[in-house]
Design goal:
The complex is a heterodimer of chains A (about 240) and B (about 70). Chain A has about 240 residues and is mainly α. Chain A is about 75% helix and about 0% strand. Chain B is mostly helical and about 70 residues long. Chain B has helices spanning about 1-20, 35-70. Classes of the chains: A mainly alpha (about 240), B mainly alpha (about 70). The interface of A and B includes residues 25, 220 and 234 of A.
């Protein structure tokens, strides 16, 4: 009982999440940024758009770890963990995609043409196609998991598929977009984690923002997990 | 839950105060740098609202878990 109580009282990271998010918003808008052509003030999106993908990657990684834990122990608790982490990961991925679409409309698209006229060139972006493929593979994970009614079979199939989905993340969003010509930054190296690529002022906000948004994702997921564990417990008894 | 509502009231009061404070001199903080601080105030308000909401869900869930544990015992 004592350990359970200790577990519940560990909320310091939620405070950290709030502090970092406020810092990311206030600092992200006030920090001095280098004056780059085409980007101008939009490079502040580094703290928000890129942070969505960092959070998604972290959540998917935690999800696949829990799938492996399920396959090792066959404890249904880990199945719920894996599902919810993937769920929230997809939401963050969609947010990353949507914010990217907005950002792209005002930087890549030809300013002399309306956005829809330059759609043809923008839609060929390997990074967009890759990210869409990765998200669809994860959407299939949810469909597959919910289409099986037998609890153990569902958990086992979903866990194996989750490992496949995670493996597919690497070619679709990390490798293939780098092999093809693209407007998206980060053709060589890792754009999100290359701190030499970013001015020293922006660096002060960059990592705290990534951690803050990721912690928010983890927080939402823990709520969903706790809700589902409670529901499952009441159903079984 | 009650303390949460007070917190929300407190936050909104501070924001109103901050907005009213800059009605006097023209070169106040809220009106400097192309009024970017107004945007920051809006964003922080949205963030505060969402965070208070998530804290509320967290607390309600904790209470439910506690009730569930005592029911079982």
């Amino acid at each position: 009982m004592a350990t359970a109580k200790n577990k519940k009282n560990r909320y310091w990271w939620k405070v950290l999440c709030v502090v970092l998010l406020v810092y990311a918003v206030v600092g992200g808008l006030l920090v001095k940024i280098p004056d780059l052509p085409a980007l101008e003030e939009t490079s502040r999106n580094l703290f928000y758009h890129v942070a969505m993908w960092m959070a998604m990657m972290t959540l998917f990684t935690v999800s696949v770890v829990n799938s492996i834990r399920y396959l090792r122990t066959f404890n249904l608790k880990y199945d719920i963990y894996a599902k919810q982490y993937a769920n929230v990961g997809i939401i963050f991925g969609l947010l990353g995609y949507g914010t990217g679409a907005i950002w792209m409309s005002y930087t890549w698209a030809d300013p002399n043409n309306p956005t829809f006229d330059s759609f043809e060139s923008v839609a060929r972006e390997p990074k967009l196609i890759g990210a869409a493929t990765a998200l669809l593979i994860y959407a299939a994970y949810l469909v597959l998991r919910d289409s099986i009614t037998d609890m153990d079979k569902r958990a086992r199939t979903a866990a194996v598929y989750n490992i496949f989905a995670f493996a597919m993340l690497f070619p679709t969003i990390w490798i293939v977009p780098r092999l093809l010509p693209s407007l998206h930054p980060g053709q060589d190296g890792n754009p999100a984690m290359n701190f030499k690529d970013v001015s020293s002022d922006m660096r002060k906000v960059q990592l705290p923002a990534y951690i803050g948004w990721t912690l928010l994702g983890v927080w939402i997921t823990t709520l969903k997990i706790r809700y589902n564990l409670l529901k499952e417990k009441n159903m079984l008894s | 839950m009650k303390s949460l509502r007070y917190l929300l009231l407190f936050v909104s009061m501070i924001i109103t105060m901050a907005v009213q404070a800059q009605s006097g001199p023209n070169e106040s903080l809220m009106r400097s740098s192309g009024r970017i601080y107004v945007v920051i105030a809006v964003l922080v308000t949205i963030l505060a609202g969402l965070i208070l909401y998530i804290i509320g869900i967290d607390r309600r869930l904790s209470r439910l878990e506690k009730e569930n544990a005592t029911e079982k015992a």
